[in-house]
């Protein structure tokens, strides 16, 4: 009976790690794709979104580096809780900063810019929620 309980606990932990790993990888893909698009397309996106090209390039580079960190974290045999907390808190801060950007620069942003900033903030909020759920299950 003890062996069964340990096996079940180990399996549950492995399943939780697998789910968290999948969310981290999906976050990495989305962040990396958005980062490359922002950095490479800054010259066009600045007019379409109403965001300065320099901001788009900076955010794009940051997102590519962030995505790389997520890939490294997701590849670890055991995903450390403190590192996952940093990701959850970072994603939460990103959502708040995105909302602040819309509130503070909303006259400068185009309608498409507002939609894009709010849509990516919503996606990041979902990632943060799923990552937090993965932490709670551990």
Structure characteristics:
mainly alpha
Q: Please give the count of helices.
A: 5
Spans of at least 5 consecutive residues with low confidence: 7-11
The ordered H/E elements are HHHHH
Structural class: mainly alpha
The whole-number mean of residue pLDDT values reads 92
How much helicity do the residues have? over 70%
Radius of gyration: 18 Å
Structural write-up:
It comes from Actinomycetospora cinnamomea. Helix 1 (2-40) packs antiparallel against helix 3. The chain has helices spanning 2-40, 42-49, 53-75, 81-104, 111-137. The protein is elongated, with a radius of gyration of 18 Å. The two termini are 22 Å apart. The chain is mainly α and 138 residues long. It has one domain (2-137).
Topology:
Blueprint: H1 2-40, H2 42-49, H3 53-75, H4 81-104, H5 111-137
Helix pairs in contact: 1-3, 1-5, 2-3, 4-5
